[in-house]
Amino acid sequence: PAYRVARRGSRGLGGRDGIDAALAAHGLDALVAPSSGPAAVHDIVNGTRGVWGSTSPAARAGYPLVTVPAGFVSGLPVGLTFMGPRGSEPQLVRFAYAFEAFTRARRPPRFLPTIPWPPGSSPDGVGGRLAGAEAKEADPS
Predict the structure, then answer these.
(1) 3-state DSSP call for residue 72?
(2) Strand, helix or coil at 121?
(3) Residue 45 is inside which H or E element, if any?
(4) Cβ(96)–Cβ(35) under 8 Å?
(5) 44 Cβ contact partners less than 8 Å away, ≥ 6 residues apart
(6) 46 DSSP 8-state letter
(7) Could you tell me how many helices (H) and strands (E) the chain has, helices first?
(8) CA dihedral for 90, 29, 33, 63, sign (positive or negative)
(9) Which terminal residue of the chain, N or C, has fewer Cβ atoms less than 10 Å from its own Cβ?
């Protein structure tokens, strides 16, 4: 019973009281938001760090959404998500297609041994190399 109550509340907050309410209040056809932060950098010692995301409300409400490439942050891809009310799939696909055609942000994936972070600004504070990569290099085993 507690699960059903939580699910109903989550679906309402994502749908009727969330996306639908925002669209109606502002006369919008869709909501657009970064899908999440840059892709997570994998640290072989500490594991991949989680990233925040904007897609949960639509997913929980069972509402359509489409995510497209939006660009790169320090070499890591970021996406943009278009969310709309039930039945808005054709319109969301048109928005996403227009965005992609205009920005041409889609690039083939690259698999890099490290990310070119500016010195002192990497997410783990080691200035350009991940702690796991450095640990692996230091440990010959």
Answers:
(1) strand
(2) coil
(3) none
(4) no
(5) 130, 132, 133, 135, 136
(6) T
(7) 5, 3
(8) negative
(9) C
Q: Which residue has the tokens 């509402």?
A: 63
Burial (CB count <10 Å: 0-12, 13-18, 19+), residue 24:
exposed
Cα separation, 111 vs 129, whole angstroms = 15
- Res. 123 pLDDT band, cuts 50 70 90: low
* Strands, E assignment, 89-133: none
69 pairs with which residues across the strands?
A: 79
Token pair, residue 30, equals: 């869709």
Integer Cα distance of 84 and 63 in angstroms = 7
102 neighbors 140 (Cβ within 8 angstroms): no
Contacts with 101 (C-beta within 8 Å, 6 or more apart), sequence order: none
For residues 10 and 19, the answer to whether their CB atoms sit within 8 Å is no
Identity of the amino acid at 112: L
- pLDDT (tens digit, 9 = 90+) per residue, 67-87? 999 988 877 788 999 999 999
* The length of the chain, given as a count of residues: 141
